[in-house]
Amino acid sequence: MAKDKIKATQALRALDQAKAHYSLHPYQYVERGGTAEAARQLGLDEHQVIKTLVMIDNQNWPLIVLMHGDREVSTKNLAR
Known about the structure:
alpha+beta, two-stranded antiparallel ribbon
């Protein structure tokens, strides 16, 4: 799929503005498919897929967690 056929997101615009080198790996969205579905379609092990979790800390600051697709975040441990 060509770059110009993918809807521009803020992330892609930021990469383009920074003149960053990147490649797109599009896949068909599947409701509740998660990283397992993305990995399947891309021919990857789910551990190679990185998921982004956006949360709010106890002071209402945004907190971004990047983790392997086959892992789960413990919000209890994160709160500590």
